Amino acid sequence: MISKDYLSPWAKNVSPSPTLAVDAKAKALKAAGEDVCGFGAGEPDFDTPEFIKEACAQALTEGRTKYAPAAGIPDLRLALAEQYKDYGVLGEANPAQVVVSPGGKYSCYLAILATCGPGDEVIIPAPYWVSYPEMVKLAGAIPKVIFAGDDQDFKVTAAQIEEALTPATKLIILNSPSNPTGSLYGREETEEIIELACRKDLLIMSDEIYEYLLYDGSIHHRPASFSSEAADRVITVSGFSKTFSMTGWRLGTLVANPSISKAVASLQSQTTSNATTFSQYGALAALQNWSKAMGAVNEMLVHFDRRRMKLLDGLNAIAGCSCLRSQGAFYLFPSIAELGISSEDFSNQLLEKEKVAVVSGHAFGADGYVRLSYATSDEVIEEGLLRIEKFCDELK
Ligand SMILES: Cc1ncc(COP(=O)(O)O)c(C=O)c1O
Q1: Which of 179, 292, 189, 195 is nearest to 239 (CA)?
Q2: In this structure, which CATH number among 3.90.1150.10, 2.40.50.140, 3.30.980.10, 3.40.1650.10 belongs to the domain 9-48+293-391?
Q3: 239 lines ligand 1 (CB under 6 A)
Q4: Which of 54, 142, 179, 189 is the most buried (most CB within 10 A)?
Q5: How far is the C-alpha of 285 from the C-alpha of 79, rounded, in Å?
Q6: CATH tag, 64-290
Q7: How far does the centroid of ligand 1 lie from the alpha carbon of residue 19, in Å?
Q8: Does any ligand 1 atom lie closer than 6 A to the CB of residue 175?
Q9: CA 333 to CA 395: how far, in whole Å?
């Protein structure tokens, strides 16, 4: 038997992803024959658009099954560079500033690893995506969490960030539209944060993985597009998972100034190498047939929007629950604080008693809330609401 304390400080400090754990628990219950209403999943419930799958299948048929350049196949990097030039994020369509990685999650991790080290502080607005604090710790850096509740639409202000700054602050993480709240930063709010970053010589990691999943005519503002200085300071992360229902393909993107993108490419070349070669050909087809791709996204959005409103109205009709109308992504983040139960207990007991899977707000740094994903069928939403209402009534 091994007697030594053999796990590294990184392994000892890291927690497993709670969102993946809830989803796995719900799937296991379902597999055991339980009738589970799952609101835990962070992935669209649609299939990947057919033409994207066909492009990938063709790449396989053509034998594109070998290593590719670590930072991505040249055509995909170029297509992304052209798109980001059109968006005003890049001055020129320079593929060297683009890195394609095995998932947006890895893009985030490498953005942090490339810029932060021991002693550096990273500002993380809560409610946050569960992985940010863990990634910061894995880089040896220190997460500095600041909080914005539903009274401020879950969005931190530049003044709040400024108050949390110390001489050790290196990076601010932004995620708009947000997981878990669906909140979206407006133009002025974004501008104020960029102004602060420039004044205090800070970097921003802008995680825009939900950039195309928007409602009520809302507009997504890319922080890197505000000025050439912003373009230098902002690392833009996105990916294909959420937009095109390609979660299993593992394709993320990162756009940054040349020295950061070079460092990210080097880190990737020594850790994962390239994202799956034939997957990248599917993504390339999406970029090369953009209006077709957006047509498929708009079809998904019709369903997401209908479900969003159904779930929102249903939650707000339950005594003790109150929920803001989100502007993006596919999550709602109701407050359950009035019910006088912790969000951990709420989500555990709801799964046990009513077989409804939601994720505790605690996982996102926001006790008193729970996250529900509406990337699920109308039937599940209707049945789930009935069960949640019954559960809440019994709590009183
Ligand atoms: C805010 C946010 N960023 C990044 C990711 C990573 O997505 P993926 O690694 O599937 O591309 C997710 C996935 O849940 C997310 O919610």
Answers
A1: 179
A2: 3.90.1150.10
A3: yes
A4: 179
A5: 10
A6: 3.40.640.10
A7: 11
A8: yes
A9: 19
**Do 9-48+293-391 and 64-290 agree at the fold level?**
no
Mean pLDDT by 10 residues, the chain (396 residues): 82 80 83 92 92 98 98 98 98 98 98 98 98 96 98 98 98 98 98 98 98 98 98 98 97 98 98 98 98 98 98 97 98 97 94 95 96 96 98 92
Amino acid, res. 46: F
Q: Cα–Cα distance between 25 and 36 in angstroms, integer?
A: 10
The preferred substitution site among 179, 211, 250 for testing ligand 1, maximizing ligand atoms within 8 Å of CB, is 179
Ligand 1 in reach of 223 Cβ (< 6 A): no
CB 134 within 8 A of CB 173: no
Q: Which pLDDT belongs to residue 355?
A: 95
DSSP 190-240: HHHHHHHHHHTT-EEEEE-TTTT-B-TT-----GGGS-HHHHHHEEEEEES
Q: Domain ranges for the chain, please list them.
A: 9-48+293-391, 64-290
Output the six-digit token pair for 131.
Answer: 């992985």
Residue by residue, DSSP assigns 14-45 as: PPPPHHHHHHHHHHHHHHTT---EE----S-S
Strand pairing of 142-147 and 121-126? parallel
CA of 45: how far to CAs of 48, 59, 314, 331, 377, in Å? 9, 25, 21, 13, 8
Question: At 123, which amino acid appears?
Answer: I
